[in-house]
């Protein structure tokens, strides 16, 4: 029995190390993605790519919270949010809300003025890479979370699904503009991203209050 218990502890410890690695990959990938997207979003005057980049930076804050959760659960098996996580959630919620307002206003102005990006080629490239990356992260996060029977880790996988949907949104709007030249498609993509930001911002505030959640931390 002691040998079995020791083996189980070793297995869980290895799985939590993998969970930490996946969380760190998510953080650093979003940082890189954010810089690339914001730079080319400004360079090519595509609001959808620019907004996608800002969203990536907000996801970094969320990712840090997830990494903190994994470390805490690994150390003491406590899944209840602590003060650090609650502050991170409030900052995340505020950032998503500000992002949504900015994107909604910018998209509305661009639609009114009939603005067209110079190109959305980089939007297609970034969205394609992001879609493949998020798909891989979701696969392994679900695999590790299932083996550990951890609702927190499975919820993190759900957060990555939201990023996957955003990537697909950017891919569709960028590809649509590149093939049709209809400037409104870029603005419509930005509006969809703003919609995701509103939803995630609301969820972050709810989780900070300890209400039902789908992303950071175990649901209450």
Characteristic terms for this protein:
mainly alpha, Alpha-lytic protease prodomain-like, 6 helices, elongated
Number of helices: 6
Structural class: mainly alpha
- What is the level-2 CATH architecture name? Up-down Bundle
The biggest beta sheet is recorded as: none
CATH class wording: Mainly Alpha
Descriptive notes:
It is a single chain. By secondary structure, the chain is mainly alpha-helical. It has a single domain, classed as Alpha-lytic protease prodomain-like. Helix content is 85%, strand content 0%. It has helices at 2-43, 47-76, 83-113, 121-148, 151-180, 184-208.
Structure summarized in a few sentences:
This protein is an all-alpha fold and about 220 residues long. The chain has helices at about 1-45, 45-75, 85-115, 120-150, 150-180, 185-210. Helix 2 (about 45-75) runs antiparallel to helix 5 (about 150-180) and helix 5 (about 150-180) runs antiparallel to helix 6 (about 185-210).
Topology, pairings included?
Elements: H1 2-43, H2 47-76, H3 83-113, H4 121-148, H5 151-180, H6 184-208
Helix pairs in contact: 1-2, 1-4, 2-3, 2-5, 2-6, 3-6, 4-5, 5-6
């Amino acid at each position: 029995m002691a040998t079995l218990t020791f083996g189980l502890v070793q297995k869980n410890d290895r799985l939590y190390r993998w969970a930490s690695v996946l969380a760190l990959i998510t953080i650093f990938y979003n940082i890189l993605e954010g810089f690339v997207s914001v730079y080319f979003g400004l360079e090519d005057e595509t609001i959808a790519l620019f907004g996608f980049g800002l969203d990536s930076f907000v996801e970094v804050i969320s990712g840090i919270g997830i990494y903190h959760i994994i470390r805490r659960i690994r150390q003491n098996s406590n899944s209840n949010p602590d003060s650090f996580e609650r502050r991170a959630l409030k900052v995340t919620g505020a950032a998503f809300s500000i992002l949504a307002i900015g994107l909604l206003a910018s998209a509305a102005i661009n639609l009114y003025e009939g603005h067209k990006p110079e190109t959305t080629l980089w939007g297609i490239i970034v969205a394609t890479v992001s879609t493949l990356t998020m798909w891989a992260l979701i696969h392994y996060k679900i695999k590790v979370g299932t083996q550990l029977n951890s609702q927190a880790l499975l919820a993190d996988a759900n957060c990555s699904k939201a990023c996957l949907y955003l990537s697909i949104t950017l891919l569709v709007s960028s590809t649509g503009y590149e093939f049709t030249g209809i400037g409104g498609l870029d603005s419509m993509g930005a509006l969809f991203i703003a919609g995701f930001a509103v939803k995630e911002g609301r969820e972050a505030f709810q989780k900070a209050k300890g209400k039902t959640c789908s992303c950071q931390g175990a649901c209450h």
